[in-house]
Each structure stands twice: as C-alpha cells, then as structure tokens.
Amino acid sequence: MSIMLLDIATIPDFELGTRLYNLHNLSEKDIFRVMSTKSREMDDKTEGLALHMQRVLAISVFFQDKESIKIWSVGDSESNEVDLLKILERYADEYKPAVVTWCGDRSIFPVLNFRYLSHCIRSALFASHTNLMSELTGASNNEPVSLHEVAVLAGSPGNKKMTDEDTMNHYLEGRVELIRNNLELSNINTWLIYLRWQLVNGKIDQAGFEAEKKLLIKTLIQEDRTHLKNFVDALM
Predict the structure, then answer these.
(1) How does pLDDT run across 113-131, given as a tens digit for each residue?
(2) Are 146 and 110 in contact (CB under 8 A)?
(3) Which residue in 7, 90, 192, 194 could disulfide with 183, CB within 3.0 to 4.6 Å?
C-alpha cells in the first residue's frame, strides 16, 4: 500500500468572520485580529483560530510507493481553496493511500472536514490514518509535542512550524510559496521520524532503513529546488 504524508496551512475564513461579527469594510489583517480575539474569548487555552474559522491556503504531500518518493504541494500558489480540496479528493480516490501525519487528528482532518462541509463537496477518503505523535506518546489526548524538536532528536534537520501570524503575513505579502515550502519540509521530517520508528519497531531492518533514506536524498537532489537542496545539505 502507498503511504502519503499530509500537511496543510490555513488562514482565517475572512468571509465567515465578516458575516459572524459584522466586519464589513475592514481589511483582512483587521478581520484576522478580531477573529483571533473572539477565539481567545471563547477558549483562553486555544492557540490561534478555532478550527471551524480557518480556510485552507496550502496542502503539501509526501507520497511513497514501492519504487519512488514524490514531494509536492497541491495546485500552485494561486490556487483557490475549492480547487485544492478537489485535487486532494481526486488523489485520495485514485490511490487510496494510508495517511501519516504528525498530529492530524488535532488540526488537519477537523479543518478539512469543516471546509468540505462549507463547500458541500465530497470529502477525501483515505485507507487509514496514523497520528505519529500519538503513537510515539502512547496517548490520544496528550499535549502537543513539537515536530521540529522530535525531528532533531531523531537526527533530522527539523524545521520550525510557522505561527498563525507568520502565515498570515506571508499570505498578505504574496509569499505563499514560502508557506508551501515549509509544509513540504514538515512532511519530510515527519517521514524521517516515521521511518526511524519503523526501524525501532522492527518493521524494517537497518538495510531497508538506509535504502529508503538514500532514495529520499536522491529524490531531493533530483528535485533541484533550493529549500530541498538546503535540507539535504543539513541532513548530510
């Protein structure tokens, strides 16, 4: 069975915020501030916007089958949310991969569910889902653990998650490609942790581990993209 690692980046659903809080004639940045404040008022333990208040800006995928690895972001930096969701749905329907995420039960899948509901389009259905963070911690209701820190612990370069404010600023300044690149690096780090966890659990042997890692490095070099080349340099 093929394996797909999945990560998303979101921005506020500005239209929803405008309708809920009567924010007509405000800039997107000001709408973001009001929506963030309202989310904190509803739950002071919540970091960032409530999940149903978010809109998908980017979706990145790491796909592995028996012969190859592919790393890309769905659509392009100008793609709208509906197109991104439909492309993901078609891909899931065609390949029916098993999905691995760092903590997809907490954010990725709830957001996707709300967005498919919002647009009344068919939801992407996958063969199975592994929440790697929960598997490592052995709990389903645990506190979040940093992907970056665990990646470094497991011998990978890591990459720090963009904050909501960072994502918002990049979006407003037309730097969506930076967001997409960051998601791709998160998927690579997640895969490397997953691969090492398979080795630790005895599901692959040392030779298999080294072969998969070698294939990853070869793939990243062949991609000839700056952020991937920099990752290889750090990994080596």
Answers:
(1) 999 999 999 999 999 999 9
(2) no
(3) 7
